[in-house]
């Protein structure tokens, strides 16, 4: 897998430092609350696991799965709800845990979905933000790292289900995904 990586953007240590910083910030802001922390599957599983261990507060945890890439290297523009949450968010503070915000479509979809369900507040924590990829207005409240407008994999991010288990974030070589 490592041979398919053009360059490493963020090391395991860079990611751990971002998790500590964000966990501390969220703890300070939610210390007296009991938020619902929702991980967006599958990409956020590693980040979700690491960041909630950095949060010193009571919380409920749930997961939601949406798909917009459908195995490709860019968002299809069509959001499909694959797995819904089990917790009722009406009147609750919600924190979404995302691996990356790219086009912003998924984030907008999720925020609208939970606002319609009566969440009292919705905030977003993302490990990576790719502002150059935006096609709709979307902004995270907590951002770990900024990434360039390149196709990145590792630490939960994938290409056709592969590379999620890399302990770092890297740029995938174009020849791996072009003409396939």
TrEMBL record:
One BP annotation, GO: hypoxanthine metabolic process
Catalytic activity line of the entry: IMP + diphosphate = hypoxanthine + 5-phospho-alpha-D-ribose 1-diphosphate; GMP + diphosphate = guanine + 5-phospho-alpha-D-ribose 1-diphosphate
Recorded superkingdom: Bacteria
Protein name: Hypoxanthine phosphoribosyltransferase
Gene3D superfamilies in the cross-refs: 3.40.50.2020
Name of the gene this protein is made from: hpt
Pfam families: Pribosyltran
Family statement: Belongs to the purine/pyrimidine phosphoribosyltransferase family.
Names of the cofactor(s): Mg(2+)
GO terms for MF: guanine phosphoribosyltransferase activity; hypoxanthine phosphoribosyltransferase activity; magnesium ion binding; nucleotide binding
Organism: Apilactobacillus bombintestini
Compartments where found: Cytoplasm
EC numbers: 2.4.2.8
Pathway this chain belongs to: Purine metabolism; IMP biosynthesis via salvage pathway; IMP from hypoxanthine: step 1/1; Purine metabolism; GMP biosynthesis via salvage pathway; GMP from guanine: step 1/1
Role: Purine salvage pathway enzyme that catalyzes the transfer of the ribosyl-5-phosphate group from 5-phospho-alpha-D-ribose 1-diphosphate (PRPP) to the N9 position of the 6-oxopurines hypoxanthine and guanine to form the corresponding ribonucleotides IMP (inosine 5'-monophosphate) and GMP (guanosine 5'-monophosphate), with the release of PPi.
Residue stretches making up the Phosphoribosyltransferase domain: 8-160
Enzyme class: transferase
Primary location recorded for the protein, binned into one broad class: cytoplasm
CDD domains with a match to the protein in the record: PRTases_typeI
Cellular component GO terms, alphabetical: cytosol
Keywords noted in UniProt: Cytoplasm, Glycosyltransferase, Magnesium, Metal-binding, Nucleotide-binding, Purine salvage, Transferase
